[in-house]
């Protein structure tokens, strides 16, 4: 199976899950029109912030950069500016590319191929916040007090310019004190101080969120090296402190966006994570460690339990973290109208939360961007409530479909990588028990499969030792036994 065509499999999987990544025939003409637009300029409604030492932090291979950051110390705390690419400034509502994005709703990343929601000429160039000339953006400004609370916030349009494109892999170890500063930071004391200040603000906000009940998960992602379509290596990549920094900044920005729209009296799309679907099983997991959780779902109690386990057993905490995430159930998009309450975002302990910080990759973020711009201009919403409902439903459906594409392709990639390891034993955690079977995730490698032997009597969260029985890259099946 070493010659298995992963790229072809990715294309088939996209079609199977209902995606149509081919851009409309009118795309070329629209892209040419966008590229011919004059350079961004400031105005009475658009501030010129190109002079600020903005920087971005993203994955090593990311080219669709959605956000840049800046921070400065003030008497009230640390003033943070999060600049978001103004994709709407390039892609007109109901234009061919907008209609395509409305249908697809998300970029899909398969390690083998990326299927962008918007053409790469846009998402990695014309609307990407690369190190280059000015770009239109939406700025979410807030001041973080010493206790991490937001003491001031504002939203406005601006022209921005990224001065330094940085990466999680280089900045994270430096912030953690385990590596030297990456070249761009070593060459610029001002930029290095900038990122340190951003980290200080992020740490304060993160600590407060966790005190309020936001959950602290240890997540791992697959890091795949593929050359000429062949899997050369497969390993687990954990989030580091640079990832935490950006996550904390984006969480605050998304909350401020949602709160501002709620105050404006506009209907908008929220990102909702309801109370865990299997809270009873989470209670059982906690009981296995001698801890008691309340009968009704409570994020603060769950967070206290997770923090205790992380401190007591940091080596195995990712196993527990994975099990709880699986038991939480998926998030969804839902429309909130004026005067209505929202189920909120359970894992973030947030009542109001929108997706707004990745418009090159997610259509829901473009919609939020348009609603915010209408609010700032004192104009009516560009969408009816019925249109927002349809968008929210489709975004949820396509996000679930994208997750299936990525999960199934990860299985195929893992099956290819593990073909030569039949008979080897691995540590694993049970991630699903359904009528269709019992599923596990290997902990040494980012590989998931089905437990074909010895599955009786296990449940989500159980840690077991399994033996690799069979791999089938074509179907993405990886079979294990006990």
Give an account of the 3D structure:
The chain is built from 13 helices and 18 strands. Helices cover 37% and strands 25% of the residues. It is an alpha+beta fold. Strand 14 and strand 15 form a beta hairpin. The longest helix is centred in the C-terminal third of the chain and has 34 residues, at 385-418. The strands form six sheets. It has a five-stranded mixed sheet with strand order 1-8-7-4-3, covered by helices on one side. It has a five-stranded mixed beta barrel with strand order 14-15-16-18-17. Strands 2-9 form a two-stranded parallel sheet. Helix 7 (189-211) crosses helix 8 and helix 8 packs across helix 12 (363-376). It starts with 5 loop residues before the first helix and ends with a strand. The protein has a domain at 6-211 and 236-263 and 357-398.
Mean pLDDT across the residues is 92
The largest sheet is: 5 strands, mixed
Give me the side-by-side strand order of the main sheet: 1-8-7-4-3
Overall, the morphology is globular
Look at the helices and sheets and give the structural class: alpha+beta
Range of strand content: 15-25%
Key traits:
482 residues; alpha+beta; 25% strand; 5-stranded mixed β-barrel
List the topology elements:
Layout: H1 6-16, H2 27-35, E1 46-48, E2 54-58, E3 67-74, E4 77-85, H3 96-104, E5 108-109, E6 114-115, H4 120-126, E7 135-144, E8 150-160, E9 162-167, H5 168-175, H6 183-186, H7 189-211, E10 220-227, E11 230-238, H8 241-264, E12 268-272, H9 279-287, H10 299-312, H11 317-328, E13 332-336, H12 363-376, H13 385-418, E14 425-434, E15 437-442, E16 447-451, E17 463-472, E18 477-481
Parallel strand pairs: 1-8, 2-9, 16-18
Antiparallel strand pairs: 3-4, 4-7, 5-6, 7-8, 10-11, 12-13, 14-15, 14-17, 15-16, 17-18
């Amino acid at each position: 199976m070493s010659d298995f065509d992963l790229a072809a499999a990715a294309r088939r999987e996209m079609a199977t899950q209902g995606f149509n990544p081919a851009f409309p025939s009118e795309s070329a003409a629209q892209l040419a029109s966008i590229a011919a637009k004059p350079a961004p300029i400031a105005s009475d409604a658009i501030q010129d912030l190109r002079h600020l030492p903005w920087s971005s932090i993203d994955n090593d291979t990311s080219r669709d950069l959605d956000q840049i950051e800046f921070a400065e110390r003030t008497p009230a705390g640390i003033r943070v500016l999060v600049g978001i690419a103004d994709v709407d400034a390039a892609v007109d509502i109901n234009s061919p590319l907008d209609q395509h994005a409305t249908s697809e709703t998300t970029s899909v990343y398969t390690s083998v191929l990326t299927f962008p929601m918007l053409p790469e000429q846009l998402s990695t160039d014309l609307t990407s916040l690369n190190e280059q000339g000015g770009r239109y953006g939406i700025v979410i400004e807030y001041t973080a007090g010493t206790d991490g609370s937001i003491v001031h916030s504002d939203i406005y349009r601006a022209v921005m310019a990224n001065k330094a494109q940085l990466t999680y892999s280089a900045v994270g170890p430096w912030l953690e004190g385990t590596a030297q500063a990456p070249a761009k930071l070593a060459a610029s004391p001002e930029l290095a101080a900038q990122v340190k200040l951003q980290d200080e603000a992020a740490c304060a906000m993160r600590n407060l969120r966790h005190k309020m009940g936001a959950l602290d998960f240890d997540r791992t992602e697959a890091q795949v090296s593929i050359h000429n379509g062949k899997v050369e290596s497969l390993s687990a990549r954990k989030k580091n402190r640079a990832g935490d920094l950006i996550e904390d900044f984006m969480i605050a920005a998304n909350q401020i966006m949602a709160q501002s729209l709620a105050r404006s009296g506009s209907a908008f799309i929220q990102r909702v994570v309801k109370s865990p679907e299997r809270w009873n099983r989470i209670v059982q997991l906690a009981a296995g460690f001698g801890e008691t959780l309340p009968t009704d779902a409570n994020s603060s109690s769950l967070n206290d339990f997770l923090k205790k386990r992380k401190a007591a057993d940091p080596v195995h905490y990712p196993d527990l973290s994975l099990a709880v995430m699986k038991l939480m159930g998926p998030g969804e998009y839902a429309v909130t109208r004026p005067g209505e309450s929202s189920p909120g975002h359970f894992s973030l302990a947030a009542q109001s939360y929108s997706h707004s910080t990745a418009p090159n990759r997610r259509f829901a973020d473009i919609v939020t961007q348009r609603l915010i711009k209408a609010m700032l201009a004192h104009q009516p919403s560009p969408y009816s409530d019925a249109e927002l409902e349809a968008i929210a439903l489709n975004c949820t459906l396509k996000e679930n479909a994208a997750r299936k594409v990525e999960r199934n392709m990860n299985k195929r990639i893992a099956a290819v990588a593990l073909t030569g390891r039949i008979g080897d034993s691995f540590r694993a955690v049970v991630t699903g028990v359904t009528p269709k079977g019992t599923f596990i995730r290997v902990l040494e490698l980012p590989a998931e499969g089905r437990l074909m032997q010895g599955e009786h009597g296990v449940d989500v969260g159980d840690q077991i030792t399994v033996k690799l029985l069979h791999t089938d890259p074509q179907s993405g099946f990886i079979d294990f036994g006990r």
